[in-house]
Amino acid sequence: MTTATLLDGKAAAADTKRELTERVETLKSRGIAPGLGTVLVGDDPASHSYVGGKHRDCAQVGIASIRVELPGTATQADVEAAVLKLNADPACTGFIVQLPLPAHIDTHAVLELIDPAKDADGLHPANLGRLVLGMPGPLPCTPRGIIDLLRRNHVPVTGQQFCVIGCGLTVGRPLGLMLTRSSEHATVTLCHEATQDIAAHARAADVVVAAAGVAHLVKPDWIKPGATVLSVGITRTVEGILGDVHPDVDQVAGSLAPPVGGVGPMTRAMLLTNIVEAAERN
Ligand SMILES: Nc1nc(=O)c2c([nH]1)NC[C@@H]1CN(c3ccc(C(=O)N[C@@H](CCC(=O)O)C(=O)O)cc3)C=[N+]21
């Protein structure tokens, strides 16, 4: 039995960061200093580790970073005040509010307060609307990272059949929108909790994207031999990180993005790309 070719997100992210370092130099020579802001609420260790990674990335490519941390007891008004402050801060050219926010916070109200021109996640309603309309603007980082990872590995997209499992705000939903744009023109089946026979949809696909957050959901017999598979969702257990794709899928797939070192590093690289592009637009 053969094993799938690795879709190496770490290597692709390193290439992206090299390209961005040059663009940041050019911006600085024109007197523009890009700066990423992050708003982190509460003390979830995973969120702290992600945000820490984002600031390390910024330092690598020469982007300044502004870190705002609020306690888990922060009120709606506290979180909204932090957003308004970054909107007004000229040193911050783009920022994100790390999700998920604590349950007592109205996430949509917070996202809607972000200045759309500083929305580094592409999750403001105006920017999601621009995506639907095919207008230029910041794009959600994980779907953008998925498409870029496929492109850098010469995996065909146009005309291909995609099965996207999970239709959350940060991955599945915007990925479906991006893949069906005229620049990609893929055919997409978006599956979710109420889908009957997800396995049958997956078996019909040239590319399967698993972003449901259910450990080992996608089994080897769900995959058409030679298909491309991306394991995006993760579940943290005491034994370690489990992806949405069962490890034995490696024996059937043609290429595979693993749950660690796959799409994650590309998500971070696309955040930097959004920051640089926003600075270039202004
Ligand atoms: N407003 C907002 N925007 C996001 O983009 C966002 C978010 N909130 N909340 C959480 C999810 C998750 N996410 C990841 C980013 C990088 C890795 C990543 O770099 N992972 C490393 C491993 C890191 C580890 O060990 O945990 C890897 O795959 O090699 C993972 C997950 C961004 N998200």
Helix and strand arrangement:
Elements: E1 5-6, H1 9-29, E2 35-41, H2 45-61, E3 64-70, H3 76-88, E4 94-97, H4 107-113, H5 125-133, H6 141-152, E5 161-165, H7 172-179, E6 187-191, H8 198-203, E7 207-210, E8 228-231, E9 234-237, E10 240-243, E11 255-257, H9 263-281
Parallel strand pairs: 1-11, 2-3, 2-4, 5-6, 5-7, 7-8, 8-11
Antiparallel strand pairs: 9-10
Helix pairs in contact: 1-9, 2-9, 6-7, 6-9
The structure holds 5,10-Methenyltetrahydrofolate.
Domain Tetrahydrofolate dehydrogenase/cyclohydrolase NAD(P)-binding: 140-281
InterPro entries: Aminoacid_DH-like_N_sf, NAD(P)-bd_dom_sf, THF_DH/CycHdrlase, THF_DH/CycHdrlase_cat_dom, THF_DH/CycHdrlase_NAD-bd_dom
EC number: 1.5.1.5, 3.5.4.9
Bound molecules: 5,10-Methenyltetrahydrofolate
What's the architecture of the largest domain in CATH terms? 3-Layer(aba) Sandwich
Low-pLDDT sequence parts? none
Helix content: 25-40%
Strand order of the largest sheet: 1-11-8-7-5-6
Distance between the termini: 53 Å
What is the quaternary state of this protein?
Answer: single chain
**Can you write the helix and strand succession as a string?**
EHEHEHEHHHEHEHEEEEEH
Question: What class do helices, strands and sheet pairing give?
Answer: alpha/beta
Mean pLDDT comes to 97
Domain Tetrahydrofolate dehydrogenase/cyclohydrolase NAD(P)-binding: 140-281
Family: Belongs to the tetrahydrofolate dehydrogenase/cyclohydrolase family.
Function: Catalyzes the oxidation of 5,10-methylenetetrahydrofolate to 5,10-methenyltetrahydrofolate and then the hydrolysis of 5,10-methenyltetrahydrofolate to 10-formyltetrahydrofolate.
GO molecular function, one term: methylenetetrahydrofolate dehydrogenase (NADP+) activity
